[in-house]
């Protein structure tokens, strides 16, 4: 117990703390110190912000992490990235790697596995890498187009501001508000009208039913009328009228002679004139035709 002095205990606690801190830091970085991993190298022209402990994925599953980055300050060689990949991962010959950055700035490496079942890349060999800009690359491609559009957008915004400052716009908006109010009033009146119609429609339908019933009654009565008998009577009447007309046109009948004999017309005309002269004379000399005397004496 004399060897476990206070200084020794403090040293042991410090060593244990450092070991735990080292293991915790590596665990947070995604490094597994207790599992055997294979070491591969990936060459890049540009690592686009890649750093140690960045994850490595294959088909969306994390299979390793970046251990170290070897940069050639002479710029005669590519940047070599040391990658620790699970020993159970078999990388076929012809596979490649790419660096992918998302909008949040997170960087990762994707292994693009080739379809080669016969040959493989052995641990310690180099994998060819590249950069997949993804959405950020598309945004970079859009920047020149956006820069060209900025002057036009500025001109459009100036035109819009000028248009909005026009008093006619305010008047138009006021008119739109008035029209909207009128439409609201019209809609309310239309709803009232429809409500009135809905209340009156049953009564109108009842009246229509009565009219249809009366029409059916009239139709029934018309169906009972003896049309043939009526037409026969009409034909008989027309025949009688025709015979009467024939008799008028015939000189042998009394009516025909009366209408067609000129001598009878002149005789009747002479008779009428004589009767007219007689009436005139009667009015002028009534005593010639009416004899009245108290003493029975006649006037000559």
UniProtKB/TrEMBL annotation:
InterPro entries tied to this protein: Mce/MlaD, MlaD_Phospholipid_Transporter
| Taxonomy, superkingdom | Bacteria
Residue ranges annotated for the Mce/MlaD domain, each copy included: 39-102
Coiled-coil ranges per UniProt: none
* Cross-referenced Pfam families: MlaD
Q: Would you tell me the protein name for this molecule?
A: Mammalian cell entry protein
Its source organism is Prevotella pectinovora
Supply the source organism's classification. Bacteria, Pseudomonadati, Bacteroidota, Bacteroidia, Bacteroidales
């Amino acid at each position: 117990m004399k060897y476990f002095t206070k200084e020794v205990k403090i040293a042991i606690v410090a060593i244990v703390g450092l070991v735990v801190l080292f293991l915790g830091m590596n665990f947070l970085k995604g490094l597994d110190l207790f599992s055997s991993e294979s070491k591969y190298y990936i060459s890049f022209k540009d690592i686009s912000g890649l750093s140690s402990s960045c994850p490595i994925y294959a088909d969306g599953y994390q299979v390793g992490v970046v251990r170290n980055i070897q940069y050639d300050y002479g710029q005669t060689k590519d940047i070599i990235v040391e990658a620790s990949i699970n020993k159970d991962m078999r990388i076929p010959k012809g596979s490649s790697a790419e660096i992918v950055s998302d909008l949040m700035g997170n960087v990762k490496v994707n292994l693009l596995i080739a379809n080669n079942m016969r040959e493989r890349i052995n641990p310690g060999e180099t994998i060819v890498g590249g950069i997949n800009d993804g959405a950020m690359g598309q945004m970079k491609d859009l920047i020149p187009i956006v820069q060209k559009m900025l002057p036009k957008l500025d001109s459009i915004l100036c035109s819009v501001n000028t248009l909005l400052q026009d008093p006619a716009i305010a008047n138009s908006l006021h008119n739109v508000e008035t029209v909207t109010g009128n439409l609201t009033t019209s809609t309310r009146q239309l709803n009232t009208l429809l409500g009135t119609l809905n209340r009156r429609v049953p009564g109108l339908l009842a009246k229509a039913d009565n009219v249809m019933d009366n029409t059916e009654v009239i139709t029934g009565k018309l169906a009972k009328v003896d049309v043939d008998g009526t037409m026969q009577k009409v034909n008989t009447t027309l025949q009688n009228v025709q015979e009467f007309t024939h008799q008028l046109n015939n000189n042998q009948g009394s009516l025909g002679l009366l209408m067609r004999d000129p001598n009878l017309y002149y005789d009747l005309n002479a008779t009428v004139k004589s009767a007219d002269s007689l009436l005139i004379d009667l009015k002028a000399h009534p005593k010639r035709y009416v004899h009245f005397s108290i003493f029975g004496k006649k006037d000559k």
